[in-house]
Amino acid sequence: MAEREQIRKPAPNERENEAAGNPSASERGEELKAELDDLLDEIDEVLETNAEDFVKSYIQKGGQ
Amino acid sequence: MAIAKTFGIETEYGIVHRGTDDPNPITASSLLINAFLASEGYKPDARSDVIAWDFIDETPGADARGFSPLGALPPEVETHLVNAVLRNGARYYVDHAHPEMSTPEVADPRSAVLYDRAGELIIQRSMAAAHELLPAGQELVLYKNNSDGKGNSYGTHENYLVSRATPFGRIVRHCTAHFITRQIFTGAGKVGAELPGQRTDEVHYQLTQRADFFEEEVGLETTLKRPIINTRDEPHADARKYRRLHVIVGDANPSQVATFLKVGTTALVLSMVEDDLIPHEFEFASPVASMRHVSHDLTLREGLPLADGSTITALEVQWELLDLAKEYVDRHGTDATGGETTHEVLRRWEQVLAGLERDPMELADQLDWVAKFRLIEGYRERHGLTWTDPKLRAMDIQYTDMRPDKGLAWRVGLEQLVTDTEAIAAISEPPADTRAYFRGRCIDTFPEQVVAANWDSLVFDIGSDALRRVPMMEPMRGTRAHVGTLFDECESAAELLRRLGT
Q1: Which residues lie closer than 8 Å to B106 by C-beta, 6 or more apart?
Q2: Chain A residue closest to B311 (CA)?
Q3: Which among B49, B63, B95, B297 is annotated as catalytic?
């Protein structure tokens, strides 16, 4: 099926001016990656000890 | 003319009673809320433990289409369960088998985030207070999610005040397109799928908690055969002027950016609908299927079939709505959408769409579905697990564990839009710029005289012959600007009522 031609998508440079022009974007990416690695290092201490039982027993009544 | 929006968010939390062989979620929810109320010094009452919710004006069966289809099931109002009104104007109660927090009415998207966060802190205080009351080894743990992974879902609903003059059919057409496509930033993420007949190994991970549970395009139900557009017509305000759009398609978001955008973009779309400024509609060939399709497509690249035979992606729809919203704000200002904060909505909306288009993983500090995916995928790779490993499903649930030291969402580095200092204040202080101010101040100042409360009235017992009802049919009246000095000057509820002229 044809793409809708009438949808005007802004040119990439038009809409990415803020995010791409932000020099801290890649630094923030590195920071996030380091934080994720740290979290993955310590996560086993936080995670439920018996994942299978925990998942099985997590039963909720339906609501809205 | 678009009217100034009033917003609110209702969240049903998942609840687990640990350390008992015989858990009962209704009893546990009541205990949780009563423990909070007692620990915060709310007044005990002869009939219930607290200032009671008043159901006299509740009509959840009213249908916005002006008729109720045969077989439609209006929700039942359960009046016997704990149901409290808080000093910040919120309602905290047991609904079905869940504790539910309804924020006070707010007048801008940032305040919606603030009171949603205050609600999270109230839940944390409630868990701590319940811990004091329970036998050793028992604990109540709350989850800010919308599904147990076994086909049971519970809701997070948004509410928007819109003009009664706007034809409901127009709201349905445009909001359907927004609700299907906004999932790319509102989704809280889920491991697997819960569609009947869907093999879970076909969908490892999807954008939303809720998309699997929608079966209709338009309807009154919220618990069965859930519709994309809910038609409950219960404005809790002057019904000649207003309707309340009750939005049931959203996920509960630990991410404040996601909550901010969820509410902020929807307010903009609704204002454009009220002013009839969306030039053409995106009529989806199959809205329910597209809802799921968007949720299941992590590439965000797959086309959704429109009724005219063409296709469009969720991102394309959102870019167009953003462009229209920018134009709308240029021409009409921000009075209808929460004032200056609207510019922040537009800025973040654009940033998030640009990020989603380049690489969604850039948004790991912004959006829940990305933060959760990155964490779970990182763990999966590190340990060489398959997607069906229960550890990953456990991480999904634990993402929204409300215990600050256990909940993964509180540790993944999500950007905060409000400080916890502000949110702690918002536990006991109402918003200044809606009628919630009057409600909250009355509960705080005259707890002995307020015998019942609901969204649009308060009932006082000032010792005279009859109970006195103060109607609040205008959500933007009763603000600090209107009545703030009255509370400073009045020494009694009787004086307050006299000066209000009731």
Answers
A1: B6, B7, B8, B112, B114, B115, B431, B433, B434, B436
A2: A3
A3: B95
- Contact call for residues B443 and B450 (beta carbons, < 8 A): yes
C-alpha atoms less than 13 angstroms from C-alpha of A62 in its C-beta half-sphere: 12
Of B73-82, B226-235, B280-289, where does mean pLDDT reach its minimum?
A: B73-82
- Strand-strand pairing, B190-191 and B14-18: unpaired
Would you call B97 an interface residue with chain A, using a CB distance cutoff of 8 Å? yes
Give the residue among A2, A1, A20 at the shortest CA–CA distance from A11: A20
Q: Does A55 touch chain B (CB under 8 A)?
A: yes
Tell me what pLDDT residue B221 has. 87
DSSP output for B9-70 = EEEEPEEEEET-SS--HHHHHHHHHHHHHHHTTPPP-SSSSSSEE--TT--TT-BTTSS--T
Which helix (H) or strand (E) segment is B486 a member of? helix B480-489
> Do residues B180 and B292 lie in contact, with contact meaning Cβ atoms separated by under 8 Å?
no
B355 touches A at CB < 8 Å: yes
Q: Minimal Cα–Cα distance from A27 to chain B, Å?
A: 11
Pairwise CA distance, residues A59 & B313, whole Å = 35
As a whole number of angstroms, the distance between CA B360 and CA B440 comes to 41
Probe site for chain A from B323, B327, B347, B359 (most A CB atoms < 10 A): B323
Residues in chain B: 502
Grade residue B57 by pLDDT with cuts at 50, 70 and 90. low
Mean pLDDT for the stretch of residues B461-469: 87
Q: Which residues of B touch A20 (CB under 8 A)?
A: 354
CA gap B485, B165 in Å, rounded: 34
Asked if residue B207 lies in contact with residue B183, where contact means CB atoms within 8 angstroms, the answer is yes
Gap between the Cα atoms of B149 and A59, Å rounded? 8
Q: Which residue has the higher pLDDT, B202 or B328?
A: B328
Taking CA atoms, A15 is separated from A20, B20, B178, in Å, by: 9, 55, 20
Element (H, E) at B83: strand B83-85
Q: Is A60 on the interface with B (CB under 8 A)?
A: yes
pTM for the predicted model, two decimal places: 0.92
CB atoms within 10 A of CB B413: 17
Q: Are strands B226-230 and B214-219 parallel, antiparallel or unpaired?
A: parallel
- Are B322 and B343 in contact by the 8 Å Cβ rule? The answer is no
Cβ-proximal residues to B119 (8 Å cutoff; 6+ apart), any chain: B9, B11, B90, B101, B103
Say how far apart CA B78 and CA B427 lie, in whole Å: 25
Place of tokens 């049903």: B12
Query: If you measure CA to CA, which chain B residue comes closest to A30?
Result: B362
pLDDT at B51: 65
